[in-house]
Amino acid sequence: MQRLSGRICASCTLSRDVCKRRLKLVKMASGPPTKRLKQTQLLFAAARNSPSETRRSEPETSDTEAQSGCSNHEDRADFASGERTLCSSVSFASTGKCVISPAGLALELEECAYQPTDAGKLEGIPEQTHGSKTRRFQTAWFQRFPWLHLSTSLKAVVCYQCAKSNQLGLLSLTTKNEDTFVTKGFLNWKRALEKFTDHEKSACHRHAVLQLQQIKSGPVTAKLSSQKAAEQESARTALLSVFGSIRYLARQGLALRGHEESQGNLMQLLQLRSEDSEPLRSWLPRTTKFVSAESQNEILELLSHNVLRAIVKEVQSSHQFGIVVDGTQDCSGQEQESVCIRYVDTQMDVNEVFVGLFSPPDTTGLTLSVVIKDIVLRLGLQLSNVRAQTYDGAANMAGRFNGCQAIICRENPLALFFHCAAHSANLASEHTAESSPLLRDALQNVNELGLLYKRSGKYAHIFDNTSSLRLP
């Protein structure tokens, strides 16, 4: 290969004439598109016809050549075909100098700045000689300026926050970017402290630090979501306290509400528990706190369903069961049918549990049988597993043909009917009193004496003294 006769760039293997032709491509950007395209084609044609460039074996560096040449990056060229491919990390600035682009620096920017304390790792950093003084980079500056980053590709220091922000495209809104601390690198050790202090106070540096802090802390939507999640967790804890309080009062059979809402058992219990629970303390002053009468009834209904599911699970494990039904009117005159289930658990213990009150439209045997079959179906049980049905002796319940027990027996013959023992004892006592006047009068006198002692404190005291005497 024939060596070029012109001067060669001190920091790379391109001849200065070729380097200048390539730099001219950037200056043509202000011309018209047609003219720019034509000039570009001519320049590339001249580059292909120019003599082949050779590499220098021992490059000689001077201050003038280092300022106008490339910054320590070689040009990858295919000398046989004459085609040239620029290094991906090299770009030509509008000033006519070859500088390192953010693509080359981006490979070095990790989670934190590179600040080696070993003096051996700083040998690649150029020194400055002014007369008899030689100035070099000091590792103590890392402690004073923690944002300094030693770039191994630039052989200089840059600002980590500014370079990182430039890599992420966060400096587009800044008007005065300091390229020395962003892409080019800083090497003026004589005025290092002064320049470092000025850069730390610059608007570009403050903007970069703020942008990186916002990225680390997350977007606003994420903050709002986390705050909303914390509020929901606090509200959930308070609502569980309300459920627990209602469950306790229901288990003890105590009233939830009083004459005034704030004086009821539920509110007093919640105020007592709020002394040890911060979420509940902040929940109670709210307008919507789920302690209204409607909310209390709904929570009680949910708790009752939970208890009922547990009962049904035990009944299903025993397979066979019996039904106990009795009805009466409430204070408003509406018919209420109480339904109980009698079964034997796995421990061979007999249990009789109440499953609910139901209001039938009428009290005929057919209607009551339909109600019982509907209850069994809703509980997830089977009518074929019923082995006993217990009612009073009324005709609509115990009738041989149209009674409730007769209708159910026709569908399940194994569901035997048993007259309620309590009703049987009551009927036996009634018939005995009617057949014997002496026994009838004795029962009446005992009832009247009980009413007398209950209503009069004087006679109650006399009765206590008399009943305490021991007969000889």
How would you describe what is shown here?
The structure is a single chain. With 472 residues, this protein is of the alpha+beta class. It folds into five domains: 16-100, no CATH class; 102-122 and 137-217, no CATH class; 220-291, no CATH class; 318-425, ATPase, nucleotide binding domain (Nucleotidyltransferase, domain 5); 438-468, no CATH class. It has 19 helices and 13 strands. The chain has helices at 16-27, 33-49, 63-68, 102-106, 141-144, 160-167, 179-184, 192-201, 203-217, 220-252, 265-274, 278-283, 293-318, 365-378, 395-398, 404-411, 421-435, 437-455, 457-468; strands at 76-78, 83-85, 90-92, 98-100, 128-130, 133-135, 148-151, 156-159, 321-329, 335-344, 350-358, 386-391, 416-419. The strands form five sheets. The protein has a five-stranded mixed sheet with strand order 11-10-9-12-13. Strand 7 (148-151) and strand 8 (156-159) form a beta hairpin. It is elongated.
Notable characteristics:
elongated, alpha+beta, two-stranded antiparallel ribbon, 472 residues, 5 domains, five-stranded mixed sheet, disordered N terminus, 13 strands, 14% strand
- What fold name stands as the CATH topology of the largest domain? Nucleotidyltransferase, domain 5
- Average predicted confidence as pLDDT: 77
Class based on secondary structure composition and strand pairing: alpha+beta
CATH homologous superfamily identity of the largest domain: ATPase, nucleotide binding domain
β-strand number? 13
State the CATH class of the largest domain: Alpha Beta
- What's the structural domain tally? 5
Residues in helices, as a percent range: 40-55%
Strand count, sense and barrel status of the largest sheet are: 5 strands, mixed
What CATH architecture of the largest domain would you give?
Answer: 2-Layer Sandwich
Strand order of the largest sheet: 11-10-9-12-13
Q: What is the CA-based Rg, rounded?
A: 49 Å
- Helix tally equals 19
